[in-house]
Amino acid sequence: MNKLAMAAKHSAQASIARIGQWFPHVLTEKLADNGKIKQAIDFDLLKQELSDVIVDGAMERYQFNWPGKKQALLQASLPTSSTLRPDKAGSVDWAKTRNLYIEGDNLEALKLLQHSYWNRIKLIYIDPPYNTGKQYVFNDQFFHSEWLSMMYARLKLARQLLREDGVMFISIDDHEQANLQKLLEELFGPSNFVAHIVWQKKYAPANDAKTVSATHEHILMFAKNIEAWQPGLLPRGEKQLAAFRNPDDDPRGPWRASDLSARTYSPRGDYPIIGPTGERFYPPPGRAWIVSEQRYKELLADGRITFGRNGTGRPMQKRFLSEVKAGITPDTWWSREKVGDNKSARYELKELMPENVFDTPKPSTLITYMMNIANVGPDDIVLDFFSGSATTAHAVMRLNAEDDGRRAYIMVQLPEQIKPQSHAWQAGFHTICDIGKERIRRAALKIKADTGADIDYGYRLLRVAAIEKKEAGSQDELPEELLIQMLLELGLELSLSIEESELHGKRLYYVAGGLFIACFAKHLPQKLIEHIIMKQPQLAVFREHAFIDADERAYVEAMFKSRAAVTRLIVL
Known about the structure:
Layout: H1 2-9, H2 12-22, E1 27-31, E2 37-41, H3 43-49, H4 69-77, E3 82-86, E4 100-103, H5 106-117, E5 121-126, H6 144-161, E6 162-172, H7 177-188, E7 193-200, E8 216-223, H8 238-242, E9 255-259, E10 261-262, E11 273-274, E12 280-281, E13 288-289, H9 293-301, E14 305-306, E15 316-320, E16 333-334, H10 336-339, H11 342-352, H12 364-374, E17 381-384, H13 391-403, E18 408-413, H14 423-426, H15 432-451, E19 460-466, H16 479-490, E20 498-503, E21 506-511, E22 516-519, H17 526-535, E23 539-542, H18 550-563, E24 568-571
Parallel strand pairs: 4-18, 4-19, 5-6, 5-17, 7-16, 17-18, 22-23, 23-24
Antiparallel strand pairs: 1-2, 3-19, 6-8, 7-8, 9-15, 10-13, 11-12, 14-15, 20-21, 21-22
Helix pairs in contact: 4-6, 5-6, 5-16, 6-7, 12-13, 13-15
C-alpha cells in the first residue's frame, strides 16, 4: 500500500501540479488520448522560465486558442438532426401569441432558429453557467477549454440571429470574464465591443468568504455592428431633473448653468468678459473660454449667458432642458439602487412563487435596463437561450405593459431535472422548464392585475426532438407539427398566428392572417379548393392524400396556375 501511495504522489499530474505552483503561467490544457481535457505543461514557456536567453520555440503571434476550439467551430457548422415539436396543450394562447418557449438543448435550438430568425433578433441576453464547480444546467464543472468550447459554438450561432443594429449582453463572474471577452472579441470583432459593465449584485460582503467576498458580477456588451446600432438614452430621474430650474422665467423653460471655461488653453478663448456690474472676468489659469469671443457675444445677445442671481457671479452658459439629449447616457457602474440586486430578484420571484424554487434569479429590472440601453423597439424580438427562471420573459411583458408594446421573447432552456430533495421538487416542479413556464404564467397574471394592460401574455411551447423516419411521408403527424415544420423550412417566424376554421367538413389553417392556407384532410371537395383559390394566399399546403389520384392532383395544380398565379402550391 505504501508503494502505491508513493507512485500516486509521483504521477505526471502530481508533477504538473507542483510545477504549476512555482510557475503558474506555464500551465495549459490539452486533449488526452481518451479525448478528455487534462492539465499539461507548455514546455516552451517552461524552458524560457529556466533560461536567461530567448529560447527558440513556436513563432510568436497574438492568438486566443484552446484544445477543442476547432471541434467547437465544426459543431456550430454541422447541420442539426433535430426538429421542433409543438405542444399546443402546454401553450398559452397558442393561436395568436408571438412569444416562444423552447425546451431542449440550446445548441440544437439555435441551429433550428437560424433560417427563421437570421438577422431578426434585436437583443440577446444570457446568464450562462459560470464554471465555478457548482451544479448547473450543463456539467457540474468545466475545464476552461470545455467551457470555452461550449460557449463558442453557441455564441457563433447566436450572433448570426442578431440584426445589424442588434446587441448582446452576457452576465459572467470573475472565473471566465477575461476568457469570455476574448472569445466575444473574436466572434464580434474588437471594434464592436461596447462596454464591460460592473453590476452590484449584493450590498454586504459574505462573512463566510474564504478570501475576498465578491459583491459584483460582470456584464459584457457587444454590438453586431456598432456603426448601425443607436444607443438608447435612459430616462432622467428626479435628481437629474432637479438640476434644471428657471429662476429668471426664461420662456425657453428650465435650464442649468454649465462652466464656460475649457480644460485646456486656446488663444481663441483667451479674452476678458465684462459682467453686468463692469467686473472683468478671465479664464482660470492655464485654461480658456470654451467659445470664441464672437460666439460669446452671440450667446449673450440670445440670453444664454448668466452671471448668477445678482449679476455678480462668474459667467456661465445656460443649457436648456428642451435642447439637451432626451435622456441620460448610461455608464458602466450599475448599482443595486439603479437596477436591483440578487436580494430584490429573490423577493420578486418569491412574491410570484412562494415555494422557493430557484436560487440564482436575476431581477427583471436589470433586463429592462438592458432593453432600454439596447434601444429595443415596441415590435422587436428578445432572445435568452439560457433562460433559467424566465426573468427575461417577465421583463419583456412588464415593459410591454408600461408602453403598450408588442415586443416578443424567445426563451430556450434545457429541461434539467431538479433534485428530488429540493423545495422546487416538493412543490411539484420536476425540471427547470417547469419553473420557467410557471413563472411566466404567474407573472402574466400579476402584470395584468396590476396594470390592466392588453398585451401578449402567452407563449407557444416547442420542444427540441429527434427527426423520426415517419416524417418523410407519414399520415400520423398532428397538424400543428406539420405547420411548425413548414414554418421552419420556409424560414418564417415560428410565432406567426395560426387560426382554424371548419369548411365543407374539413379543417382549414390560416397562417399569418392568410399568408398561407393549409388543409391536411383527405379527399378535398371542389368547393374547398375554390375557396382557397379565391383567397389568393401566397402558399397553399396539402397532403398527398388530399387527392384521389395523380389526375386529380394535376387538375388542382392547373387550377391554381391559371386562377391563382400568386399562390405557390406545396404538397407534402
